[in-house]
Amino acid sequence: MPSCPAALFTVTRRLVPALLPLALLGLTSLPIAAQDQRQSPGLEDDLPVAEIQAFAEIFERIKRGYVEEVEDAELLRNAMRGMLSELDPHSAYLDSEAFESLRESTQGEFGGVGIEVGMEDGQLMVITPIDDTPASAAGLQARDKILRIDDTPTDRLSLQEAVNLMRGDPGTQIRLTILRQGDSAPLEVTLTRKIIRTQSVKSELLEAGYGYLRVSQFQTRTGEQVSSAIRHLKRDGPLKGLVLDLRNNPGGVLQSAVDVADAFLDSGLIVYTEGRLRDSEMRFSAGRETAAADVPLVVLINGGSASAAEIVAGALQDQRRGVVMGTESFGKGSVQQIMPLGNGEGLKLTTALYFTPNGRSIQAQGIEPDVKVIRGRLQVAEGNGLDVRESDLQGHLSAPDTQRSRGQTSERLRDDYQLGEALNLLKALDVLSQRRGD
């Protein structure tokens, strides 16, 4: 390309109409900001003409000299992707396919393997596998690094490109090469795609009087489903305690997280957000009506608990409404706003950070559990056959009119050490409450 100023001016002049929307894409809330009396610094500055000219020169050099012909629209879309991906791991340009994919995930139905992924230092990483999906059945874990998708290395893929590769027709297979923390060599996992219909809330009784509530992600109707599940658990009598399981929950809709926390709180702040623009600053508080205001509560979290799950855990912890148990959460404390672009595409932009009621930022820090319990498995120790109790002695006296009813115990407790410890804590709290005469 000619390097004289006149030629460069001609190229820049020709491209500026296309580049101006691109240069302003990160300022799509500018009309709102203009009404804000506390205008953010830098919004009133002139556009950086030198950088726009450099962009135009690069654009033209690619057009003229790249080994293969590239469409203008593809170059501009790639520029938009790059501009957003350099901001933070959660801001992204959404083409029509990605925009539809996001809509499907919040509605609770999509095709693929059932895995929530993100980027960390340019590496594709598992945030969490979704319950009852090929990914969870294969044993994928939070913070597993995905090195290859079939034969495609992931280090050159955008997040959306990786998601597109993992989705496909039901019944087709996909190979993922995984590197797990602590392992020296990668492992290969073969998954069979299927239609993923996620049920975000599940519930059951662990034992008589002790309920279990599993929230796998926060969709548009999760708050309603939690309240309904609590009412269902109460059908057979009052609850002595409840376990709220938020492990491997990647988050989702902010309002649903507020609704779930509100199910256990009858007053007080749940979460607030702070950003550069006035409309990104919000406060959410609990209402008086609640599904389980007084039920003793244990909240389970782990490294796969992120975003909206951390909002709920942080609110219940700060309000001293429940005991948070497990391991440190993921640490995603940012809010993304979805902005339609009018052509079936969209922009996902980080606009604020959220804070717990006590003013804690979760971003890159996570929620520390009140009681740390590492993942494990319950195993009954083998006896030597020499244990003898009074009831084993021949001719022992029977206690009068006593029958011990064990009731039914959930199968979940057999292989879930953290859940077993949560139930034990609830039982201990119940014993103390009875002794105090509460």
TrEMBL record:
PANTHER family: CARBOXY-TERMINAL PROCESSING PROTEASE CTPA, TAIL-SPECIFIC PROTEASE. Residues 1-34 form the signal peptide. It holds the Pfam family PDZ_2. It comes from Halomonas ventosae. Residues 390-412 are annotated as: Disordered. GO terms for biological process: proteolysis; signal transduction. Keywords: Hydrolase, Protease, Serine protease, Signal. Belongs to the peptidase S41A family. This is Carboxyl-terminal processing protease. Residues 99-167 form the PDZ domain. GO terms for cellular component: outer membrane-bounded periplasmic space.
